[in-house]
Amino acid sequence: MFTGIVEEKGTIKKLSISGTSGSIMISANKVLENTKLGDSIAVNGICLTVTSMGDGFFTADVMAETVRRSSLAKLTAGSEVNLERAMAADGRFGGHIVSGHIDGTGKIRSFAREENAVWIDIETPPQILKYIVEKGSICIDGVSLTVAALTSDSFKVSVIPHTSAETTLLGKKAGDPVNLENDVIAKYVERLMNFRTETTAESSLTMEMLETLGF
After folding, report:
1. Cβ-contact 182, 128 below 8 angstroms
2. pLDDT reported for residue 125
3. Which of 32, 56, 88, 131 is within CB 3.0–4.6 Å of 186 for a Cys-Cys bond?
4. Is the pLDDT of residue 49 over 70?
5. Sequence-ordered list of residues with C-beta below 8 angstroms from that of 110, at least 6 positions apart, any chain
6. Using 50, 70 and 90 to split pLDDT, how confident is the model at 199?
7. Which domains are seen in the chain, by residue range?
8. What Cα–Cα distance (Å) separates residue 71 from each residue in 49, 83, 143, 205?
9. Distance (Å, rounded) from C-alpha 128 to C-alpha 172?
10. φ, ψ of residue 92 in degrees (nearest 5)
């Protein structure tokens, strides 16, 4: 599990995609501290398993589902990526619950500066947009951000200078894809609300019950 608080920006040294799967090598420093083979590192929000590591780099395998769901295959050697180690049990929960399982991609529509912050407008497909709520959380390329505005086909976030400096977000341009992970709670609630048993019996979970419980 991750929190969406990026620890450092790494650089892709090698990306080998054959068909729809492959491997990636990334240069990094901080995320290698106390890391061992088999540990998880989020790369632009994608949970990848460390398969080898050396002085200033690590490698990971990339499966077909990851390539289909994310923008990873559009990157090249030299591309910067956001990196975060899996959360330690005694660590601070600075962002929100991030699984590292990408739901899909969005496309940056525009940037607009407002005093010390920058607004990013991201065009988003309906299957992702339906889980997004104003003032809720969204993970964009591994960065935990608060949704500041919604339209019928996009959402906006406002990025402060610290986030701008520590992540790759403002190094992108209009038209670039970004990895998106919705708040996992919304997906579980939808699943419970729509679940039916093999005998088509209705779930005991109702809207009234959710309201009573504070949802």
Report:
1. yes
2. 96
3. 131
4. yes
5. 120, 121, 174
6. very low
7. 8-85 (2.40.30.20), 104-183 (2.40.30.20), 184-215 (no CATH)
8. 18, 15, 15, 36
9. 21
10. -80, 140
